[in-house]
Automatic annotation (TrEMBL):
Keywords: Endonuclease, Hydrolase, Nuclease. GO terms for molecular function: endonuclease activity; nucleic acid binding; zinc ion binding. InterPro entries: HNH (IPR002711), HNH_nuc (IPR003615), NA-targeting_endonuclease (IPR052892). Transmembrane segments: none annotated. This is HNH endonuclease. Pfam families: HNH. Residues 27-80 form the HNH domain.
Length: 98
């Protein structure tokens, strides 16, 4: 494996651990508990699996810096897709999702 790719994986792992603590294991958007990928909870509720989310999507100029990354459940990540964060949060509260 190339050193750069290895570094990126290591950084992402560290980011996940820090973000999990910072967010108390809750989705950044809907505040529901997230399941760790590969766990029994994840198998039972695949849409609750923790994913890394770009607050500003890469297609809108977002970067991989820690400031732009949060952990969200797969459901939120999928729904948000390439929407910007403000639009997505507005939609979440409109639908009174959760
Ligand atoms: Zn969520």
């Amino acid at each position: 494996m190339r050193a750069a790719a290895k570094d990126k994986r290591k950084r992402l792992r560290q980011f996940r651990e820090l973000a999990r603590q910072r967010q108390n294991g809750l989705c950044f958007y809907c505040r529901q508990p997230m399941a760790k990928a590969g766990s029994a909870a994840a198998l039972a509720a695949p849409m609750s699996v923790e994913t890394i989310e770009h607050r500003r999507p890469k297609c809108r100029g977002g970067t991989d810096s820690a400031a732009n990354l949060v952990l969200t459940c797969r459901a939120c990540n999928t729904r948000k897709a390439s929407m910007n964060e403000t639009a997505f949060l507005a939609q979440l509260s409109e639908r009174d999702h959760i």
